[in-house]
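Internal tracking record. Fields below are filled automatically when a chain is submitted to the structure queue. Please do not edit lines marked as system-generated. If the sequence contains nonstandard residues, flag them in the REMARKS field before resubmitting.
Queue: standard
Priority: normal
Entity type: single polypeptide chain
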Amino acid sequence: MLYLDNSATTQVLPEVKDAMLPYLIEEYGNPSSKYYTLAENARKAVEESRFHVAQLVGCESDSIIFTSGATESNNFIIKGIAHYYKNQSRHIVTSAVEHPSVLETCKFLEGEGWTVTYLSVDKYARIYLNELETAIQKEKPALVSIMWGNNELGSLNDIEGIVRICKSYDVLFHTDATQVIGKVPVDLKTLDGVNFLSGSAHKYHGPKGVGFAYIGKDALGLPIQLTPLLHGGGQENELRSGTLAVHNIVGIGKASELAHKNLNANITKLEALDKTLITILEQKFSKHISFNHDNAKRIPGVLNVLFKGINNETLVRSLAPIISVSTGSACSSTKPSHVLREAGLSIEEVRNCVRFSLNSLVKQEELKLFETL
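SYSTEM-GENERATED OUTPUT FOLLOWS
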């Protein structure tokens, strides 16, 4: 079986599993407890993992808040900012192609009386910077939330340009970076102006059920204020209460350590695999396919292909015994892709599209399986 649905989830690396196991069996202490060894060991493990996540995205360790995943992080940040700054602004700017955890949160806020501007996108699902600036000028928002890399087309937004505009109008900026972490360089120390960022371990060979929220700092060096999503015992700097899932946090820490260490090598391998798969698809299917993704400014290893006249659900089912692929986002798999629709494809074309998403563990020779189809 050739697994090419890595934008949906990735396999846990053996090193990650091995790091997690002791915290499921022997090291079962609660890091919020005090004084005894099991608690101290758990607390040290959590802080070591926090360091590795921070290193991966280029920030200080105390800016990382552990969550259950990017969906929670997105909800936490958007709702938290909306509640905290509701007396200053009731306007949010996002794009029409965000992950459902952003779009549905924004729809919820609309029901609470908020105005949400949904920016349109080009044919590769990237926002137009002039539209962003116009939306900010029309009504200064409490938050701008734009994804770093698109989960269906792999397209990379101009984060530097977005940051520049948001900073010039003193607007808080959040980016859902779930799809880019571990696949493109992310260095928040050199990208001043990203105030909030979301990520999930299972997108870069960590366990499911754990992610993080990056909470930036203000001009005084203090964490930017927002309302917690979860109240309780005050864990995670009183921003995310609840007993920490130490085994999962150790998992995201190890996955982050490995992703940081191997980033350049993984990118090089993904680019080579990407090129090989495109060549094989072109040779095999010729005029019967077209590519929806851009060849530049794209997450390496994410391809979106239109198979002319072939229903994507039928194709995915027929490939399932030998190749795992998808029709789009796993979080909205029962609906035609809103991303491709916003990018300008007809509903008929959308139903002919398949996403291939690679990982660095795939071998070149495995891709030759397509030649036998």
